[in-house]
Task: structure prediction
Amino acid sequence: MSGTDNFEAVVKERRTEAVAEFHEDKTLIKRFQHALHSAPSLVPLIVLMVSILLFAGLVGTRFFSAATLTLILQQVQLVGIVAAAQTLVIMTAGIDLSVGAIAVLSSVVMGQFAFRYGIPVPLAVLCGLGVGTALGTINGWLVAVMKLPPFIVTLGTWQIILATNFLYSANETIRAQDIEDRAPLLQFFASTFKIGADENGRGGATFTFGVIFMILLIAVLSYALRSTAWGRHVYAVGDDPDAAQLSGVNVRGTLISVYALSGLICAFAGWALIGRIGSVSPTSGAELNIQSITAVVIGGISLFGGRGSIWGALFGALIVGVFSLGLRLLGVDPQWTFFFIGLLIIVAVAVDQWIRKVAA
Amino acid sequence: MQTQTQVQDPTMAGRQPILMGRGLVKRYGKVVALDHCDFDLYPGEILAVIGDNGAGKSTLIKAVSGAVIPDEGDILLDGQKVAFRTPTEARQAGIETVYQTLAMSPALSIADNMFMGRELRKPGILGQWFRQLDRPRMERFAREKLNDLGLMTIQNINQAVETLSGGQRQGVAVARAAAFGSKVIILDEPTAALGVKESRRVLELILDVRSRGIPIILISHNMPHVFEVADRIHVHRLGKRLCVIRPQNHTMSDAVAYMTGARVPDTEFETA
Result:
């Protein structure tokens, strides 16, 4: 074997140290970085705890009461549900700008089908859920099969769906009183139960079905993402779609399923939206887009895909809820809420970049 | 032009190639990447494929691994004609490829990556209705396979792949191929991105896999590595097989001369 470089032989003969060595990083910061790498929702959880304690200190003990804390849950239920949908899409390195529009159009379909056409309410609800899923599937098809960038696709469908929503509903609101009389099922998610209230029904923890649904939804999705092949594929597609394809993952099918599921979840959010505001209004839910993306980013889910835990999205939504309610109770200008949320977004993305460096 | 069955390495007379390509043609517009190319891989051997950039060796490898569908020609696995439309189909037939990019998801664990696209589910209701993955079984299997190849300096099977070194990643990718590749393993530039020490380890891995009886196709630009581990060397030039040489009868400069066209070999096959 002529021409073999000499150093090769040296290495071959005198190789004493193992090549594939794995040594633990010693410093505390490095360990923390590794812990965050394996449990990405830890940061938002810590931030959430700290902000609750902070506002409890500033506002006083009434902030720490079950009533206040469950009020925050009620205020974030919509954002939480939509953020769950947004999380799925963002994990595939996409983004869904049409979540709010899908939610509103689905709620309008539920309302109009029940009131304009007199379709039985459960069927109207199913139709609304079907419309949401179909719209999500169209997004997914455009992204996965037509290979268009998710941002552009959903920017387009957002406008189209919103316009359809106004054209179809003729900008007409169905009043809360009518829904309560004739189709109470539409307000299903507003039903409440109390734990620990006094005999006058005051205080204690108040849960709406919307809140319960949000928590159940995130628990189920968390299970699916962690413990099923589909969930692993969602991460793999977000991480590196080419690698996933070569490993035998059906990238196209995974993407379409994610967008379709996102559409279905948004339709549920539309149903919960009726419960939250009481009426069916085509102008509602406009802020859900930005709020859901904010919750996801603060929740430590990487906008570049493949990283993060869906619980982070819930924590992110709760952090925003704690800040808005806390600052309102303090009586400061509500603009401070946006100020701090903006700060949190930037810090969250900076932390995400730092955690990624664990690889290096 | 020779007829199909006559093209055989005389030194391999009487043996049946496990993977065979005959008259493969692939055109990209006006560019002919494969020009009636033949290809033979025999059981238990390491066949290196070398060729200049643009000679069409990646297209050849993609054709046998299912990533490219040839316009003409036949691919025979175990003497049976096969027509792969996707890498998944080739994999199901027992041909595993370790791509140069490794095709792994950096944020996921070693075990997750080894089973990507062929996950194991829990038995019974948990697996059937709740689609739950059988993590313990997958982790045990991954650990076993890494152990087999002497890679158990990797402590934690749940470690994210991105926290591994280049050599460790390559090791995991080879272990994945060895674990599932029942017939043929294709390695595309396995040492290209590695340091000297890590390359050594990967070459040892390659020899180790061969000793298990699985034939390997090795694509590499690194002549010392090729000459060290290969049993035969397929020299690819201008879209087809120029010749097959044995490393013990040739120097590296011979091989490079054939590859670049500076010299023309006497015969397509040498009589050993």
Chain A touches chain B through 41 residues (CB under 8 Å). DSSP finds 15 helices and two strands in chain A. Residues 75 and 239 of chain A are 33 Å apart (CA to CA).
